[in-house]
Automatic annotation (TrEMBL):
Subcellular location: Cell membrane
PANTHER family: ABC TRANSPORTER ATP-BINDING PROTEIN (PTHR11795:SF442), BRANCHED-CHAIN AMINO ACID TRANSPORT SYSTEM PERMEASE PROTEIN LIVH (PTHR11795)
Lineage: Bacteria, Bacillati, Bacillota, Bacilli, Bacillales
The name this protein goes by in its record: Branched-chain amino acid ABC transporter permease
Cellular component, GO annotation: plasma membrane
GO terms of molecular function: transmembrane transporter activity
Keyword Acyltransferase: no
Record carries keyword Transport: yes
Record membrane topology: Multi-pass membrane protein
Transmembrane segments: 12-39, 59-84, 96-114, 134-158, 179-202, 222-250, 257-277
Keywords assigned: Amino-acid transport, Cell membrane, Membrane, Transmembrane, Transmembrane helix, Transport
UniProt cross-references to InterPro entries, sorted A to Z: ABC_transp_permease (IPR001851), BCAA_transport_permease (IPR052157)
GO biological process, one term: amino acid transport
C-alpha cells in the first residue's frame, strides 16, 4: 500500500510537469496551426541553462526559475518572428520540416556545449527534504511541483475562459480570419502565444531538471510525450491538456512500475484508444 501511494504521488508530480511542458505546444498548435517539433528542445534548453546557472555559476535555484523561462521565451520569440512567420503562407509541411531541423540543430548544440553525460540539478535547499503525509515520507520538491502546477493550471484556465485575451484565443481556435477581420492584430496574437508557450517550456525545464535530469536525446522523448498528451487532451484546451497530462502521467508511472518493458506500448495504446473513440481528444475540437 505504501508503494502504491508513493507511486501515486510520483504520478501526480510527473503529470503536472507534463502539463507545464505540453500546454505551450497545445496553445501554439491550436492558435497558430504550427506543430512546433522544437518544443522539446526548448524544454531541454531550459534545463541546461538552469543547470549552468545553478550548478556551474552557484546562483540560487529561484534565480534560475525567474530568469530562464524568459530567456527561453525570447529565443522562442526569435524563432517565431525570423523563421516561422515567413512560412505561415507556405503550409504546414514547411513548418514541420523547419522545426524538426531546429530540433536536430539544438540536439547537436547541447552535445557540444554540455557534453553527452547525464546531468542533474539539486532541488533548492528549502525543498531538499521529505514531508510526512498519511504516514509516508514524500519528497517536498514533488509536493512543490504539484502545488505550482495547480496554481499555473488555475491561472491559465482563468486567462483562457474569463479574460479578453482568452476570448481572442478561443475565437482564434475557431476562425483566425474572422478574428483578423474584427481588427485584432492576429500576428501579434501569434507572437504572444508563441512567446508564452516557449516561456512555459523554459519553466518546465527548470522545474523538471531535479526530477528528470538532462541527457542526450531527451528533447525527442519529451516531444513524443507532449504529442501523446496533445492528442489525448485536444487542441488548444487548457482543461483537456490538464486532464490528459495527469492521465498520461499516471499511465506511464504505473506501467513503468508494474510492467516496465511494456510501458511505452501502454502509453501509445492509450493514445490509440482516444483517437478511435474520440478523435478530437477528451476536451478539444476535431483534428
Amino acid at each position: 500500500m505504501s508503494t502504491l501511494f508513493l507511486q501515486m504521488m510520483n504520478a501526480l508530480s510527473y503529470g503536472f510537469l507534463l502539463f507545464l511542458i505540453t500546454c505551450g505546444i497545445s496553445l501554439v498548435f491550436g492558435i497558430l496551426g504550427v506543430l512546433n517539433l522544437a518544443h522539446g528542445s526548448l524544454y531541454v534548453l531550459g534545463s541546461y541553462v538552469g543547470f549552468s546557472i545553478i550548478m556551474k555559476s552557484g546562483l540560487p535555484f529561484w534565480f534560475a526559475l525567474l530568469v530562464v523561462p524568459f530567456v527561453i521565451a525570447i529565443i522562442g520569440l526569435i524563432i517565431e518572428i525570423i523563421l516561422l512567420r515567413p512560412t505561415y503562407k507556405l503550409g504546414h509541411l514547411s513548418q514541420v520540416l523547419l522545426t524538426f531541423g531546429l530540433a536536430y540543430i539544438f540536439h547537436d548544440l547541447f552535445s557540444i556545449i554540455w557534453g553527452k553525460n547525464i546531468l542533474a540539478v539539486s532541488p533548492p535547499e528549502i525543498l531538499n527534504h521529505s514531508v510526512e503525509m498519511m504516514g509516508y515520507m514524500i519528497p517536498a520538491y514533488r509536493l512543490a511541483l504539484i502545488a505550482i502546477g495547480c496554481v499555473i493550471a488555475i491561472l491559465l484556465w482563468y486567462t483562457q475562459e474569463k479574460t479578453k485575451w482568452g476570448a481572442v484565443i478561443r475565437a482564434g481556435l475557431s476562425d483566425k480570419e474572422m478574428v483578423g477581420g474584427l481588427g485584432v492584430n492576429i500576428h501579434l496574437v501569434f507572437t504572444l502565444v508563441f512567446f508564452f508557450g516557449s516561456l512555459l517550456a523554459g519553466l518546465g525545464g527548470v522545474l523538471g531538471s531535479p526530477v528528470l535530469g538532462m541527457y542526450p536525446g531527451m528533447e525527442f522523448q519529451i516531444l513524443i510525450l507532449s504529442l501523446v498528451v496533445l492528442v489525448v487532451g485536444g487542441l488548444g484546451s487548457v482543461t483537456g491538456t490538464f486532464v490528459a497530462s495527469l492521465l498520461v502521467g499516471f499511465v506511464e508511472t504505473f506501467s513503468r512500475f508494474f510492467v516496465p518493458e511494456l510501458s511505452l506500448i501502454i502509453t501509445f495504446a492509450l493514445m490509440a484508444v482516444v483517437l478511435v473513440v474520440r478523435p478530437q481528444g477528451l476536451v478539444g475540437r476535431r483534428i
